[in-house]
Amino acid sequence: MNMAVLEPIEGFASHSLADQARVELMDRMDTKFLVTEAELRACLIGLDEHYTVLAQGDCRRFEYHTLYLDTPPRQFYLDHHNGKLNRTKVRFRHYLGTGQVFLEVKRRLKGMRTIKQRVPVTGQEIANGGVDTFLLEQAGQSVTRMLPTLFVDYRRVTLISRKGHERITLDTDLQFQSPDRLRRVSLHGQAVIEVKYQRKAGSSPMLDRLRDIGVRSTSFSKYCIGSALLFPEELKTNRFKSQLRSLNGICN
């Protein structure tokens, strides 16, 4: 990512992790956009009066390392591919800036609603099966019946609304890797914007800006697109073909 793209966020006032915790939005609506670097920069210019940016010291861009789990037949992937309205994703997310690791279950429900549940975990808890109760309750699966299926790494900038009802994530430098690290694909010059908000949040300056510059929302899923890019021979990919074609020239 050309760092000049993110220069506009240097003019944003900052907020802390404690501030951000008040806008967790674990039960929310969300809208995603896949944008170019030029579109990302255009989205940020002039929005400092509406949003603040997460900062720790001088750092405003943080690394995330995610490992997705799925059943052996890839049921979570197939549910999304086949258009199931109620679907689930399971992942371990490592926040490299703080060292924290969470096990997360993200459920997408009919009508664009997203519910996320998570618990902090340690390597010892994972080895001892200490996460089984959580997974059984939230995803109906035991960790022993699931397999690691995809690594996703990226850098994230997080904005929150000054009105406190909206959170926006800007993900860049996306890289997908197979669990054995033998397959790898990176997306160059692209970013994923996700606008997360309460059901009755009112107007969104970011959504207005995206509409004004002609960017349309997408159902882009890091897990599904990454899996389809890495395993085109092993997985059904018909549902994602238009997105895969558009990404073909920028992947390596």
From TrEMBL:
Domain VTC: 28-231
Official protein name in the record: VTC domain-containing protein
GO biological process: polyphosphate biosynthetic process
Superkingdom, taxonomy of origin: Bacteria
